[in-house]
Design goal:
The protein has 17 helices and 14 strands. The chain is of the alpha/beta class and 503 residues long. It has three domains: 313 residues, P-loop containing nucleotide triphosphate hydrolases (Rossmann fold, 3-Layer(aba) Sandwich); 95 residues; 50 residues. 40% of the residues are buried.
Amino acid sequence: MNTFPIARVGEQVLEIQGSMANRHGLIAGATGTGKTVTLRRMAEAFSNAGIPVFMSDVKGDLSGVVNSGDGQGKVGERINDFGLGEAWLSGFPVRFWDMFGESGIPLRVTISAMGPMLLSRLMNLNDTQEGLVNLVFKVADDNGWHLIDLKDLRGMLKHVADNAAEYRTKYGNVSAASVGAIQRQLLTLENEGAENLFGEPALNLEDWMQTEGGKGVVNILNSEKLMRSPRMYSAFLLWMLADLFETLPEVGDLEQPKFVMFFDEAHLLFDNAATALVSQIEQVVRLIRSKGVGVYFVTQNPLDLPDTILGQLGNRVQHALRAFTPRDQKAVKAAAETFRTNPSVNVVEAIAELGVGEALVSFLDEKGMPVPVERALVLPPQSSLTPLSDTERNEYYQKDILYRHYKDMVDNHSAFEALAELAATEQAAQANQQQEQKNTAQKETPKEPSVADGFLGGLMGGRKKSNQGVGYNVADNLGSQINRQVTNAISRSVMGVIKNLFK
């Protein structure tokens, strides 16, 4: 059976059992107590066994995993204390990702893949506004329109608002106020850089589940800038978790996991989360174990996680907690109560006394039962603690074969283009209708007599009609006068001839 060594108590090595590594875990402790080193040690142990790993790099200090350690300082001291030797030091295959494409391979997801629930969480919408987002998704699905990026969503909102009467009877009420509120939230997301998150080519999670040279690839998401938008950070991580659950096949209990994820600053996943969303996360965390995926949450305080989630975390490493406030004291007590008791360890006192790199450790045994808690020293990391420079990191990820696939955003045909085509078709049909109406009106309208017609009419003695215009009237009068003069002249001539005959 595969095991993953994490810490030591004297000569005893504390290991995560391979078949229990997918029962999830927790790394907790105050700032500066060694959580990051423990995270690295676990990631390295899994990678050594050929298991791909995902980590979010919140502080920008994990990039050194790609290089072997130098064995200096406290790391070197602990290597000597444990008798690990220089062979312990090693680098690992790393793939850097960055949602903004500045320090790693660009990372994107489509609006459709995110789904209405997580998207509503991302925009911090109320129930009414979330209902409208569901309506928009339904309309898009019924029409076969793909929602890829923010302009697709904005176009759909305008379309639904413009055709509110039609959709109101079919799907429910469409509130103009809700449409406006969602549009304002979209502007906020754009200002936070969400246009980089939504688009294509979208991330294929299979690209994260790779191995190189017998070691699992360590996927590092640069979250330094992303953390400025906690909503975007949490929405993406939750999408990733849900997508893995939906796409991976059921495999049951394996000898070791297929994939392991570490969620740093885990409290952000649950801050201000709706009850329905927390329930969904709980369900995914509970069931994703059978998909061969292990999830490890990293946070300062165990109370940051909902009790329903905390109860699913079997492998625990608790670093020091500072009991300065009543809440801190409550957290210490809660953390102590979650461990299986050990007569030789006073957990409550130990939590406040732990040094850097020291922790209370309890993993699951072969039967899935937590072992008694031990006060242990975490094994030193094998990789370098010194992060790569910006230049080194850029050179590294730009040579990655996946960079060529993901680097450029592609604007494929989607809802925005479909709506533009629909608008153009409707505009053309409207123009044709107006032209037909104009042609019909021209055929039905009688021809207005011209000035020449008026002159000839007056000359020939035609009947004057009403409403024929000033020009026609003038020409008609002129023609009538000429007609009378000609008639009188002819009459005088005829009468003169008759008089001459009777002389």
